[in-house]
Design brief:
By secondary structure, the chain is of the alpha/beta class. The chain has 3 domains: about 280 residues, Alpha-Beta Barrel (TIM Barrel), CATH 3.20.20.70; about 30 residues, no CATH class; about 120 residues, Alpha-isopropylmalate synthase LeuA, regulatory domain (Double Stranded RNA Binding Domain), CATH 3.30.160.270. About 40% of the residues lie in helices and about 20% in strands. Helix 1 packs antiparallel against helix 11, helix 3 packs parallel to helix 5 and helix 16 runs parallel beside helix 17. The radius of gyration is 24 Å and the shape is globular. It starts with a strand and ends in an 11-residue tail after the last helix.
């Protein structure tokens, strides 16, 4: 059966979504999840965007053990050279060149003629191939390009040495039948097509990214570019979990499968959601809260009699935890470690020690610690920033007949500062007090609080989106006390903004 390669661009195209930026530690956490998923290619970022992005691509290239590591670059020789400086440390590097091919992009964005675009593509692929054994060439906005021009430019870059050609539906314009016909036309007419892999990259503006990608597989595509939870520019990209489960569930129809370990999907989705603060909608296929829920009586009866009546997939297939073991404050390190292993975590001794310390603190507040609590605790390590602000203590007074007042003490390095403020409510009051201590006001774009699990002692997760100047970040905090969780989330955002201020970010190019 044909193996379809999964090219994951969560760390590049996904991170371009407003408010979805990640620091290095968070990117390494997602990289680890992608390797556990067994994706074939990790697009680590856009190395020439900024010094921070260059370093992130470089460190991911040095760290990745089992995946090809790619970085996007414009079709400019100096950009390709700079990209190679970051990628050359990878065990299996790939330079990913992007150049627009549609009339509207060539005329208004590139201000180049088709002949100039053809020459630029050929020259830059030839140059990249001298540096790296793997080169991918992407035709940006391919689905609004002239088909014969695509044949011409793809044939030329194949002759120049590219190893993968990518057909990008950059603005989510195409439809499954139309895209299938385009892929078939390219396969029938590109000179040397048998020497390279044909890849597709679909956006979801019309809600057809996954359907278009799967139609391309039926037409002969060998690689799909996608992201965890489908995050990405505007309406997002094709969702990795939907692609993987569609091919897993309907492999006989497609005659194809992937190398994805589907049991890692739930954890990977949760990890990304925790980092960027964007939870999938309840009815999101595969990873949404209602994906395996049955409320209608006739559905419940059918599932109880035979699960296949209303379930074409099993929760176990994507790694949804079954809560077989009860953990509490009397549970020991051995039981906790066993539970981590059963949930698929592969942690070092130092990481287990930190996780166990968090678990014991939580267990003092809760009677039972669930699998979802544990997953949340492990994911929470992504928000620990050295040298950032930490909450030492806080007091909040609030009521229907008195104004909300908050007093809080923060610690940064070895210095402690305390201040107080009023607000429209307890959360507003503590945020105002924090702003007074850090001597700066931030724009709060979004704030949400939800319970991780059920019960009165549920672990609460607070998520904030903060803006300072042109930077937008997500902060997250966990606690059984929603005010404490909110404080942690706000400080997480502030610490991230302080970290980002060390280097500027240029506008990215979409692929």
């Amino acid at each position: 059966m044909k193996i379809i390669k999964i090219f994951d661009t969560t760390l590049r195209d996904g991170e371009q979504s407003p408010g979805c930026s990640m620091n290095l530690q968070e990117k390494l956490e997602i990289m680890a999840r992608l390797e556990a998923l067994r994706v074939d290619v990790i697009e680590a970022g856009f190395a020439t965007t900024s010094p921070d992005d260059f370093e992130a691509v470089k460190i991911i290239a040095q760290t990745a053990k089992s995946c090809t590591v790619a970085s996007l670059t414009r079709a400019i020789v100096k950009d390709i050279d700079r990209t190679w400086e970051a990628l050359k440390y990878a065990k299996d590097p790939c330079i990913h060149i992007v150049l627009a091919t549609s009339p509207v992009h060539m005329e208004y964005k590139l201000k180049m003629s088709p002949e100039q675009v053809l020459e630029r593509a050929t020259e830059t692929v030839r140059h990249a191939r001298k540096l790296c054994n793997k080169v991918e060439f992407s035709a940006e906005d391919a689905t609004r390009s002239d088909w014969d021009f695509l044949v011409k430019i793809f044939s030329s870059v194949v002759a120049a040495g590219t190893t993968t050609i990518n057909v990008a539906d950059t603005v989510g314009y195409t439809t499954p039948q139309e895209f299938s016909e385009l892929i078939a036309y390219l396969r029938a007419n590109i000179t040397g097509i048998d020497q390279v892999e044909l890849s597709v990259h679909c956006h979801n503006d019309l809600g057809m990214a996954v359907a278009n990608s799967l139609a391309a597989v039926k037409a002969g595509a060998a690689q799909i570019e996608c992201t965890i939870n489908g995050i990405g520019e505007r309406a997002g990209n094709a969702a990795l979990e939907e692609i993987a489960l569609a091919l897993f569930t309907r492999k006989e129809y497609f005659g194809a499968i992937t190398n994805i370990d589907t049991r890692q999907i739930y954890r990977s989705s949760r990890a990304l959601s925790s980092i960027i603060g964007m939870k999938p909608s309840a009815n999101k296929p595969i990873v949404g809260a209602n994906a395996f829920a049955h409320e209608a009586g006739i559905h419940q009866h059918g599932v109880l009699v035979n699960r296949s009546t209303y379930e074409i997939m099993r929760p176990e297939d994507i790694g949804i935890p079954s809560n077989k073991m009860v953990l509490g404050k009397h549970s020991g390190r051995h039981g906790f470690t066993d539970r981590l292993q059963s949930l698929g975590f592969d942690l070092s001794k130092e990481e287990i020690d930190k996780a166990f310390e968090k678990f014991k603190k939580l267990a003092d507040r809760k009677k039972v610690v669930s699998d979802d609590d544990i997953i949340a605790l492990i994911s929470d390590k992504s928000f620990e920033i050295d040298g950032g602000y930490q909450c030492v203590r806080f007091v909040v007074n609030s009521g229907s007949t008195i104004p909300a007042v908050a007093a809080i003490m923060l610690k940064k390095d070895d210095e402690e500062k305390e201040d107080s403020s009023t607000g429209d409510g307890p959360i507003d009051a503590v945020f105002n007090a924090i702003d007074r201590i850090v001597d700066r006001r931030y724009t709060l774009l979004d704030y949400s609080i939800r319970s991780i699990t059920e019960g009165e002692d549920a672990l609460g997760e607070a998520v904030v989106k903060l803006k300072r100047d042109n930077e937008i970040v997500t902060g997250r905090g966990l606690s059984t006390d929603i005010i404490e969780a909110s404080i942690k989330a706000y400080l997480s955002g502030i610490n991230k903004l302080a970290l980002k201020s060390r280097g500027g970010v240029s506008p990215p190019v979409e692929g």
